[in-house]
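Issue 218. Parser rejects a valid record. Input:
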Amino acid sequence: MARPWSVALAVSVAVLLPAGTGADLSHASAFVAPAVARLSSLGSPLSQNKLALPHPTRGRRDPLALRCMAQPGTETKPVDPAWVSGTKTLKATEYYKPLVAGDILESTDQQRGIVVGSYVALAALFVKGCLLLPPMSAAVMVQVVLAIVIGYEFADIGSGVYHWSMDNYGSKNTPVFGTQIEAFQGHHELPWTITYRQVCNNIYKICQATAPFCVGGILIVNNPFVLLWMSTAISFINLSQELHKWSHQGRGETAWWINMLQDYNLIVSRKGHLAHHKPPFEGNYCIVSGHCNPIADKLGLFRGLETIVFSLTGNKPRCETLERPLENVVVDLGIKRASSTLERSGPE
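Output the parser choked on:
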C-alpha cells in the first residue's frame, strides 16, 4: 500500500502538468473575440460570458470557457475604445495582455529551471522525511496524516496572509515585492489574464522564495513529521497560484480531476474564490484549499492585522481607502469605461 507521503508527492507533481491536454500551450492559437456593448461591467471573470468567442467549448454551459495564449513575440497595441460599442473586434493578444510593463505569459527557460530546481529540493525534503520515519504503526500513520493535513491547511492560510498583504500594501516601487504587488493589482482589473499563464511562468516566483526553506529543512531538520509537514506546506504554497488560476477557468478548460477536486472542496473552488473579486476585495484571500476563508473572515483575522499595521505604520489598507492603482489603465486602454468607481473616496 502506498504511503500517504507518496500520494501527496504524486499529487504535487501531477498538478504541475497543464490543466488541459498537451504539454505547453505557449503556441496555442489566439482567437478573435468580438466585443459587446456592455463591457463597462467587466469587473470579474464572469464577464467573459459576454464575449461571443469561436471556441471548441462554445455551446456548453460554461461561462468561463475562454482559454487562449498570447502568441510569443506578438506586438500589442492600445485598445481602440470603439470596440466598447461593439463596432470593432479585438485580438485576444491585446485584450488579455498583462497590465504590468514587461510582463509575459509564456514560461522562459530560466523560469522552468527555477521550478525544476525547487521541486528537486522539495523531493529531497520528502525523501529525507520518509527515510527517517519509524516503523509504521497506527500511531505513526496518524502522525503522518496529521502532518500532511496541517501542512496543507497551513499553506492555505499562508497564501491568504500573503495575498492580503500584496493586495493592500505597498506599490510597484516597494523593494523585493514591488512587481508582485503591481501584478496583484493588475489581476484585480483583468482577473482572466492569469488563466493564460503557463505553469512555470505562474509559479516560479513562489518556488524561488520557498527553495531556501527546502534546503534548510534538508540540512538541519531531522524530525520526520516536521519534514513531512514542511514538504506538504511548501509544495502547496508553490502551487497556490496554479490552484488560483484553476479557480478562474471554466470546467471545460480544466481536467476532470481538477473539477472533481473543486467539486469536493479539496482545492479552492470557482465560486469560493470569485467572491473575492468584488470591490473592495476585502475577504476570501486564501487560494489553496479555501477552507480557511470562512474562519478567517468570520473571526476578523485580516481586519485585526490591518489594525496592527495601522498602529505600527499609520498605513491604511487599500480595501479601506478604495485605492485601485491600475483602474485608470484599463479605462485608458478602452477595456473599461470610466465610472463612478474611479471617483470613489475612502470612508469618512
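Fixed in the parser; the record now loads. DSSP finds 14 helices and two strands in the chain.
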